[in-house]
Design a protein that fits this description.
The protein has ten helices and nine strands. It is α/β, with parallel strands linked by helices and 273 residues long. The chain has two domains: 170 residues, Rossmann fold, CATH 3.40.50; 93 residues, putative n-type atp pyrophosphatase, domain 2 (Alpha-Beta Complex), CATH 3.90.1490. It has a five-stranded parallel beta sheet, with helices on both faces. The chain is globular. The N and C termini lie far apart (42 Å).
């Protein structure tokens, strides 16, 4: 039964697994990825099979590597719209990490609450972070792991290998996607810059909305628009699938010579009309 479930679900994922960019990226807000797959690839027949059988098949269990930033929040969106049983895993590295975002991860619990999703934490250090994550994921009994990786081969290859060792699938739904995805994300998400670590992008960017104006500034500075090289980190305070908007109550700025961080001082939940 699991193999049938996996086949039916994965058959509808061609849009997201198309990392080569041979097809234009269509608008996918607020459409579901399944709808996009039908429109983009003509997968009507497979989609009908999926819809007819899905009521008899238990949903895939996914774990999203969640940091509170824009890319991992979009990865959550992907999992939810597959109808998968979604949980969040937040890795809290005790040191600077090339693999995992760390500013403001203590507030991921509040984000999970407004998404009505369970969250678990993995506390680790650089030398053991993958081993610690692997041990944690093994306990969850999941079918797949989902990341917000966009262009980092370093991150994606390690997570893919970890998934292979666990015998589960690995998805990176925005892998190699272009700026159109980012532009739509900015339209529907409320995103703030919470860390900077690149020449030209300094503390004046901290606590500012990550929007079209900021994207233009990043382009002029020749900064990767997704900040995939570690040039910056973000925090999402609202999205279409949040039950409440998270209002940021204040900021504490930690300024350094090579990097700076805006720590969130407090959050409050604001009901949506």
């Amino acid at each position: 039964m699991r193999s049938l479930r996996t086949f039916l679900v994965l058959s509808s994922q061609i849009f997201f697994s198309n990392a080569g960019g041979t097809h234009p990226t269509p608008s996918f807000f607020p459409k579901s990825p399944l709808t996009i797959s039908i429109e983009t690839h003509g997968l009507y027949f497979i989609a009908r099979i999926y819809l007819n059988f899905s009521r008899f098949i238990s949903p895939m269990k996914s774990a999203v590597l969640f940091s509170g930033g824009k890319d991992s929040t979009l990865a959550v969106f992907f999992s939810i719209f597959q109808g998968w049983e979604t949980s969040l895993v937040c890795v809290q590295s005790q040191e600077d990490s090339y693999m995992f975002h760390h500013p403001n991860t203590e507030w991921c619990k509040e984000q999970a609450e407004v998404m009505n999703l369970p969250i678990s934490y993995v506390k680790t250090r650089n030398k053991t972070e993958l081993a610690d994550l692997k041990a944690h994921l093994k306990k969850l009994k999941i079918d797949c792991i989902i990341t917000g990786a966009v262009a980092s081969e370093y991150q994606k290859q390690r997570i893919d290998l970890l998934a292979h060792e666990l015998g589960i699938r690995s998805f990176s739904p925005i892998w190699r996607k272009n700026e159109k995805v980012l532009e739509e994300m900015m339209r529907y998400f409320e995103i703030y810059m919470v860390a900077v670590a690149a020449e030209g992008i300094d503390a004046k960017f901290l606590s500012k909305r990550f929007d079209a104006d900021m994207l233009e500034k990043l382009k002029k500075l020749k900064i990767h628009p997704f900040l995939e090289g570690g040039e910056g980190e973000t925090f999402v305070s609202d999205a279409p699938f949040f039950s409440h908007r998270l209002k940021i109550g204040g900021w504490d700025f930690l300024l350094g010579n090579t990097s700076s961080t805006a720590k969130i001082a407090g959050l409050s939940k604001i009901p949506k009309c």
